[in-house]
Amino acid sequence: MATGSRTARPRSSIWLSERKTTKRKGDQQPVGLDHLKIVAATMRLLDAEGLAGFSMRRLAAELGVTAMSVYWYVETKDHLLELALDAAMGEIALPIEAVGPVEGLEHTPAEPRDWREQLRQVASEYRGALVRHPWLSALLGEYLNIGPNAVVFNHASLAVMRNSGLPDDRITSALALVYQFVYGFGTIEGRFAARSRAAGVTQDELFHEMMGTVEDRMEFDEARKIMEARGGGTVQEMQDRDFTFALDLAIAGIEALRER
To answer: Where's the HTH tetR-type domain (predicted)?
Structure first.
């Protein structure tokens, strides 16, 4: 029975439908503007001001054009954010063994590297993208990550994990372990760096201020011992050590279950 209410439709994706034209009769393509420039400016603004500070009007001002000039190239703000998401995925350098030769470029076959080394490269590059672009983690949870760069990333990751020797019915589960670990680690790392920049202090200064506050509020002897054993003279060094060892634990788990 009809209730008079309308069923909400899910947000459309730029990857699921062809772009509808918004040009009016007499409109002309803006001079000196293209998709690459618009997406690059979008990423710069997102890096500088975050998702909360981003708007199509702000982007148009950055580009020195009108908002309608931007809409000549992209239908909605959501579609533009999807393009920025995929552009960020395109920054991830993938193992050439997993991607294969690139069309138009000369490629000399290299000695295949061990899958563990390839997986460390994928994980480290993914982490780097999340840290460089703190807005990326939010978009990954909000939009369909199925653009062309994301497809290449997933294809390469599957190829790397298949080389581990895991049966096919366990490959996606193993990738989920690595993906979610890197996503969580890189998200927290990127947000801490962004918080430091917003506060006008270095990450090391903010970290030591935090530790001093915690020490004043509770018994910290055991935690201090662990932190000292952790090693690393800076926040970056501590994060790198934690990431490397945690990834080694994940790889060791994959190896153990493969053998079993």
So the answer is: 32-92
